[in-house]
Design a protein that fits this description.
Blueprint (H helix, E strand, L loop, with lengths): L10 E4 L5 H12 L3 E6 L6 H10 L6 E4 L5 H15 L2 E6 L14 H22 L3 E10 L3 H4 L5 H21 L5 E7 L12 H10 L8 H12 L10 E4 L7
Length: 251
């Protein structure tokens, strides 16, 4: 029996893979034989590029691509680069995302729109451009959040964006089904890396009390969900939201 988690010969792009969950995902695909494209967005300090190159050093023959996912032309250029240098794309993980919490009373329009722009418009842009280079039987995995299912306090922008990603996932699943491309979302709960990492200890402990499994999730548990959805084991799953939240939300 072939190993269903052997991604040899597959080309994988994880957006926002210079750090956090995205970095762990791309490294996991690489460790299982995939040809990997590491994506970052340029920043004034050059830190994102440095982080992306650090991740790339753990991969075999990686492609490191600078792309602002909110920029349609840059997203198109990224896909052309992947097409020209790797011959196409098999697995896309739309992982790029940002968070800026504030109550509705205090949230500026820019703070609302900037989150929507990166999290939703960015996912749309990359998906739209990827559709031209994704091979039949391909996989798209979008990163949603428990916040998009429950509407967490102080996250009008983030919750809205993650709820929109669920709807976008379902529409994309319908439209790309004729190419045998599956499209699913992962909705993490509170994970011990990335955005949840910066929470004050008392907030973390309060959330733990509300989680049936009594702990934060491990980044590896999100990575495993992505590996599963990208594998042949999930070939008849599309338009689905996979909750990885320790039971914090059951829907």
């Amino acid at each position: 029996m072939p190993d269903p988690l052997d991604f040899s010969g597959k080309v994988v792009l994880v957006t926002g893979s210079s750090r956090g969950i995205g970095a762990e995902m791309i490294k996991a695909f690489g460790a299982r034989g995939a040809q990997c494209a590491v994506n970052y967005v340029s920043d004034s300090s050059g830190q994102n590029k440095t982080d992306a190159e650090t991740v790339a050093r753990e991969l075999k023959n990686p492609l490191v691509v600078d792309c602002d996912v909110t920029n349609s032309a840059q997203a198109e250029s990224m896909m052309k680069q992947i097409q020209e240098q790797r011959g196409g794309l098999d697995i896309l993980v739309n992982n790029s995302g940002i968070i800026r919490d504030r109550t509705i009373k205090k949230m500026s329009l820019e703070e609302f729109e900037s989150i929507i722009r990166v999290n939703v418009t960015g996912t749309f842009n990359v998906t739209q451009k990827a559709a031209t280079v994704l091979r039949p039987g391909g996989r798209i995995i979008n990163m949603s959040s428990v916040s998009g299912q429950m509407g967490l306090f102080g996250q009008a922008n983030y919750s809205s964006s993650k709820a929109a990603i669920i709807a976008l996932t379902q529409v994309t699943a319908r439209e790309l089904a004729r190419q045998n491309i599956t499209v699913n979302a992962i909705a993490p709960g509170f994970i011990d890396v990335g955005m949840s990492k910066g929470m004050p200890d008392e907030v973390t402990e309060n959330f733990k009390k509300q989680i049936p499994l009594g702990r934060l999730g491990d980044v590896g548990e999100i990575v495993n969900a992505a590996l599963f959805l990208a594998s042949p084991m999930a070939s008849y799953i599309t338009g689905h939201v996979l909750n990885v939240n320790g039971g914090y939300y059951m829907g």
